[in-house]
Design brief:
Elements: H1 7-16, E1 26-27, E2 30-31, E3 34-35, E4 37-38, E5 47-48, H2 51-65, H3 85-92, E6 99-101, H4 105-116, E7 125-129, H5 134-146, H6 151-154, E8 155-158, H7 169-178, E9 183-189, H8 201-210, E10 214-218, H9 230-233, E11 237-240, E12 255-258, H10 305-320, H11 324-349, E13 354-356, E14 369-373, H12 377-386, E15 389-390, E16 392-394, E17 398-401, H13 410-426
Parallel strand pairs: 4-15, 7-8, 7-9, 9-10, 10-11
Antiparallel strand pairs: 1-5, 2-3, 6-12, 11-12, 13-14, 14-17, 16-17
Helix pairs in contact: 1-13, 2-10, 4-5, 7-8, 11-13, 12-13
Amino acid sequence: MDFENSKAFALSLDEQDELKNLRKEFLIPQHGGRDAIYLCGNSLGLQPVRAAAYLQKQLTNWHELAVEGWFNGDEPWLQYHQSLRATLGGLFGALEDEVTVMNSLTVNLHLLLVSLYKPDSKRFKILMEGGAFPSDQYAVESQVLFHGFDPKEAIIEVFPRAGEYTLRTEDIIAAIGQHADELALVLFGGINYYTGQVFDMQAITKAGHQAGAYVGFDLAHAAGNVPVKLHDWGVDFACWCSYKYINSGPGGISGIFVHRKHFENPDLKRFYGWWGYDLRKRFQMTPGFVPAQGAEGWQVSTSPILLLAVHKAALSLFDEAGGLSMLRKKSLLLTAYLEYLIGEINQKHGEELLTIITPKEPQWRGCQLSIICKRNGKLLFDHLVKNGVIGDWREPDVIRLAPVPLYNTFSDVFSAANLLDESLVILK
């Protein structure tokens, strides 16, 4: 598409947007009596309007049914989580029994590593992206230490080449091949939180398996953002949070994927909990753990129904959007428009004051663009916030902006870019 740097053009794109009515399904923060320009869905998604009604329904059930709510009413709590699996399966390219909702992201990562990080004296190393989000780094470090290995020896990090910001797939594949005889696990993010790079999960999975390792992904920044095909790619496991692009609230409940090929593997260890016990026999209260079929067998604790209610409200909006297909189409256009406008700003000022470090190729990025500010970066960011643009600052010089197709408009993108330009003029 040939873009134009004008408000009229942005409004015309908004008018043509087939998903424009979804915006009214979200509560937009206010700034100076009008909607803020919220471009921080990569950190916390906005509240769905319907979340309150879904939550209130379960509060009412708690009031009217009390403990009987686990078994009675139109949505018995005992199996409430199962009503989310179809939508989640669609978002993650998984079979329904390969996904479930439980806990929080890092807790789930630890539970999955109990099963699928199985080091021995020969194969004990974990290969991961250099600069992964700290919670992943800490989880991996503690798992390695728990098994009695030295993290400095057992953890292999793959970094971008000198002078580059993102990883090349061939370098990831080469690193896997280089350490093939020692790898127990390849663990990557689906999208790097800092650069916004989408990794080639299919290629990484194939290479990891060829090396004889298990392969898993932290999909925190990919969930509800980019299409994935976990089952078809043969990914062993994945986990994610729901409070970014899925919009299920701060600290919202997490989810997991375990490939069906592992369901009947008696050699996989796991930590047991009553909620993961076969539902058909759960209330017999007998000793000896019998796992529920599928990913539910990794559940440990009772489902938090109030969190699930908000999650269900948020997921229903993906159903109304028809899944990720149309959302992804709009997302690519929103991000491309922001990229174009940043290019216009640089051209106007006669130098590259704003450098986008997110990959230029659309298939290797999601909603987020990470922008290096060549001068006065924090002051520039503060000016945006002061004027109602909510993004995200990352030291030492990066602004992350994420136009989300569920609720952001092309006018949002145009106005944010205008304020970026204004900031550069003021702070020159």
